[in-house]
Prior knowledge:
Structural class: alpha+beta
Shape: flat
CATH topology of the largest domain: Jelly Rolls
CATH superfamily of the largest domain: Cupin
Protein name: JmjC domain-containing protein
CATH architecture of the largest domain: Sandwich
Helix content: 10-25%
Strand content: 25-35%
Largest sheet: 5 strands, antiparallel
Number of strands: 9
Distance between the termini: 48 Å
CATH class of the largest domain: Mainly Beta
Organism: Heterosigma akashiwo (Chromophytic alga)
Radius of gyration: 18 Å
Amino acid sequence: EEEREADARGLPCDPGRALARQCGGPGAAVLWREPFARLFLGDPGSGTPLHVDLVPQLEVSHAAAGAKLVGVARRGTATRALLEAHVDGREPLCETKVPSHRPPDAAEAALLAHPAVTLALVLPGDVLAFNSGQAHFAANGAGTGPSAAVYHGLVTAATAPALLRGDPGAAAGGDG
Length: 176
């Protein structure tokens, strides 16, 4: 029998194998997953501006260090309106970022206060899941120094219809 890692209590610890079991066979919850996780590291003040991923998927983020402020907009017209107001597709430097190292300017404050945006402060040990086909942003540091998080992308039976429609701004349809 192959040797497996164990947690502090000596119990088998293999999240990759557990996820793989969910991916196989009829009725599997996970239809596809990225073959490798991505590690996002950032100093306070760095981050990702408001955007929509090219391929909408369920993003599962595991926070490892520091703090990260993540904002996710409702799908549908809320996402489209936020993108029109805060993203200049020709000039990435004009896209609205959210600072964690200084007070926000007027555009940044408007994004943070927008009623269609849900904010989460992600701390070490937290797990955050969101649809990357909805407008989202992240700010590293949030007053705690550098941050680190591991992201895994998944496609589930519930998120597959949005992929087939090819409309990331309406990822799952409607306005909800």
